[in-house]
Specification:
This protein is mainly α. It has 3 helices and no strands. It has one domain.
Length: about 80
């Protein structure tokens, strides 16, 4: 997959602190931003997959085990 450049506008203080953080980690601000965006996209994909699994489970229902519940008439027999 190819790489693309993007332009973002950030507060000067954020840029200053990002540069310091990148230097401490021996990387670039660009790499820091790329890693964070990649993590965000991966987290979103995992969330979406979990959501689809949960909705599919709701469609099939749950097996609570044990015996079936009594009917309304059985519950109200006197």
């Amino acid at each position: 997959m190819g790489r693309r450049n993007i332009t973002v506008q950030l507060d000067e203080e954020i840029v200053r602190r990002a540069r310091m953080l990148a230097a401490e980690r021996s990387t670039s601000v660009s790499r820091l931003v790329a890693e964070q965006l990649e993590a965000l996209v991966a987290d979103d994909a995992r969330y979406d997959a979990a959501r689809r699994r949960a909705l599919a489970l709701l469609e099939t229902g749950f097996h609570g085990g044990g015996r079936p519940l009594p009917s309304r008439d059985e519950l109200h027999e006197r």
